[in-house]
Design brief:
Blueprint lengths: L10 E3 L3 E5 L5 H10 L1 H5 L11 H17 L3 E7 L5 E11 L4 E8 L8 H15 L5 E7 L3 H9 L3 E11 L5 E10 L1
Parallel strand pairs: 5-6
Antiparallel strand pairs: 1-2, 2-3, 3-4, 4-5, 6-8, 7-8
Helix pairs in contact: 1-3
Bound molecules: coenzyme A (COA).
Length: 185
């Protein structure tokens, strides 16, 4: 089936969080937590290295809105249900529809880490992949130095599958080894 015909929910609800598909004019909501977390994000996310800018964030959410429609990437803004504040992003950053395999990516505002929010958000993604997307496998990949990211995969029951050594260079020119975690669904 053409992936564009597959229903993917625009909104996911968890006990503490709301996950909403990126929409035009929400760039400013993401800009605030991202800019405040720039140093931490830049450790592992290349797009944050040269700074975080409001107009780039708005361009990003508009492109992501289109990518969601095309089913190329399925990313969501994460809001806290208590106060509606935006605290980060997660979603399927790579969709292999032919074999129904999906890769999860994420970032969280530094002030919101340590509460289990991202694990909770990713659990909702796993359930969505199993049901709406009829996934066969879900993948999380991260820099081997990114223990917080690896811990999310492990908490969700993903298995460590191996490390791709010297996969790329980081922003400082140092080699990055990438660990892969997989969940057969
Ligand atoms: C990766 C990242 C999202 C992890 O954030 P995090 O807060 O550690 O992850 P969670 O929100 O799932 O919270 C887990 C932490 O909350 C604690 N916690 C508290 N209540 C919890 C609950 N109800 N359920 C689960 N964990 C809970 C856990 O013990 C854990 O803390 P610990 O690592 O000290 O043991 C964050 O570090 C980040 O955005 N980093 C920068 C961007 C990045 O690296 N992205 C990934 C690229 S691959």
């Amino acid at each position: 089936m053409d992936p564009i015909l597959i229903h993917v929910p625009d909104t996911l609800v968890t006990p503490r969080l709301l996950l909403e598909r990126h929409m035009p004019d929400t760039g400013k909501d993401l800009y605030v937590p991202a800019a405040a977390s720039q140093v931490e994000l830049a450790r592992f996310l290349p797009w944050a290295v040269d700074g975080i800018f409001l107009d780039q964030m708005e361009s990003h959410v508009r492109r992501q809105h289109a990518q969601f429609t095309l089913r190329n990437e399925l990313n969501y803004r994460i809001l806290k249900r208590t106060d509606g504040s935006t605290i980060g992003v997660t979603g399927f950053v790579k969709c292999q529809w032919d074999i129904r395999q999906f890769e999860i990516g994420y970032w969280l505002a530094t002030t919101e880490t340590g509460n289990g929010y991202m694990t909770e958000a990713c659990q909702a993604l796993v359930e969505t992949a199993r049901t709406a997307l009829q996934s066969t496998k879900i993948v999380i990949r991260c820099d081997t130095r990114n223990a917080q990211s690896a811990n999310i995969a492990m908490r969700l029951g993903f298995e460590f599958e191996g490390t791709l050594r010297r996969f790329k260079r980081d922003a400082h020119g140092d080699w990055t080894d990438i660990a892969t975690y997989g969940l057969l669904t």
